[in-house]
Design brief:
- Three copies of one chain form a homotrimer.
- The first copy, chain A, has 192 residues and is of the alpha/beta class.
- Helices cover 45% and strands 15% of the residues of chain A.
- The first copy, chain A, folds into two domains: 31 residues; 154 residues, 3-Layer(aba) Sandwich (Hypothetical Protein Ychn, Chain: A).
- In chain A, strands 4-3-2-1-5 form a five-stranded parallel sheet, sandwiched between helices.
């Protein structure tokens, strides 16, 4: 552009400034689409029921296989899903009570309905085996293999007296801030 | 703009190029706001409880009436919501068992609490009738009339031995990919 | 910029027009990032179980403390969370029945599992006291102090015959439109 007068020079400088500002602002918008929302799924696994846990694990592994980042937060009864054994040693009477009553492991969970003291659950296991459905414990392993982030609720662990040697490997400890941090950047959040 | 020298010509061309690039980038951002997130609600209807199903259907029809696209995924106990009858013929003993034990139809569901072998549920039906609350079966019909997408979980259907002639019309079959596909473009996703 | 001919003048005007349009469009995109999605959490508190209510309140207060706007919608059994007392006067037989059977207050709720007619719940209260965990009623107060929006489902209130003088202060009345309105602008929505 040919600029003959100081006034014209100012005009061009202002124009270039406006375009540079536009470029910077647009880069900002482009780099933070949807306020930092990512291709991510976050779920609270609260229930510890066999059927709901299956739903959670099938959604989690399915989403991970589709390429989404997935975070699972195991809290309260959901801690049973990521247990590998029961340890009674060194626990107080309440902790021993919960340890005795709560299942230790994804394949030990009971149905939320029609459990009939385990008969309904056994029937469901038989049905699932006949249909070649993956077991919950296998789905937990598959989720870990797919890189699903697995966080155990620290407060629930303390409250129910769950010891680290009762839990499977590869878990993180966290709290509500861990969940909300992931959920706030997720396209989908579920409480199961 | 008067351009007297080759250098000035280049300057103008560069300027126009920058503006054209800005326009294209902005159009891209505008056409994909929020990473493809739409005015959409997706829900997993898992429970099959009368009360939770009512909540799911009221939220679904309410959202649809407000102009949102709505998708409902009926899985596990939730299959009972979209059944119209029980068929025992040609089923194995397990499938017959589930068919016998599980309700067939949105109006046959039991309360998740205070069911008292059906007395609490009957009391709730009476209460709802007195208050002119729409029945679950009517809400299912209303949801279909409002264009709510209704998907039945294929794996649950197979597992529980639910036959097509046991289900109401207008349903699609799908899996976790169907749900995640809709949920990932939804403003709101719920597991009920 | 020196403009000697009418054609050059038009060119510059067109250029300035394009830049002004870009600025306006970008401002539009910047002011409505992610289709109006805010740093907000919306939850339906449906269950009325002690354990699930604790989870809901811990997530709500945690999110509020992290700076998110939080909305809680108390519906169905969840109405018990925001009750302060039972009133039987002037109610019909059904309403009296529900009033008698349903707990009145966040600290009166029972566990969803292992309740054992109250023994499990008492054990959980003892455990929580030993671990200095805040009680549900204190969390409700904390949520209100943190500015959490608390909405009571109008239809549930009518259906279960809950009177205003049975509820704590600081609540709004609303319906599915109130929930969907908040959920549709929330980063995270949960059904608990």
């Amino acid at each position: 552009m040919t600029l003959e007068t100081p006034a014209a020079q100012t005009d061009t400088a202002a124009l270039l400034e406006r375009i540079a500002t536009l470029e910077a602002r647009l880069a900002q918008v482009e780099s933070a689409p949807a306020m930092g929302i990512e291709d991510r799924l976050s779920m609270v696994v609260f229930s510890g029921d066999f059927d709901k846990t299956m739903a959670a694990l099938i959604i989690a592994t399915g989403a991970a296989a589709m390429g989404l980042e997935v975070s699972m937060f195991f809290t309260f009864w959901g801690l049973s899903v990521v247990k590998k054994q029961k340890v009674f040693e060194g626990k107080n009477v309440f902790e021993k009570g919960f340890t005795a009553m709560l299942p230790a492991g994804a394949n030990k969970l009971g149905l939320s309905k029609l459990n009939f003291f385990g008969a309904g659950t056994a029937m469901m296991h038989k049905l699932m085996k006949d249909h070649n459905v993956t077991t919950p414990a296998e789905l937990v392993q598959m989720a870990q293999d797919l890189g699903v982030r697995m966080v155990v609720c620290d407060m629930s662990r303390e409250l129910l007296g769950v010891r680290d040697d009762e839990l499977i490997g590869g878990l993180e400890l966290g709290g509500v801030a861990t969940f909300m941090g992931d959920a706030a950047r997720s396209k989908v959040s579920l409480f199961i």
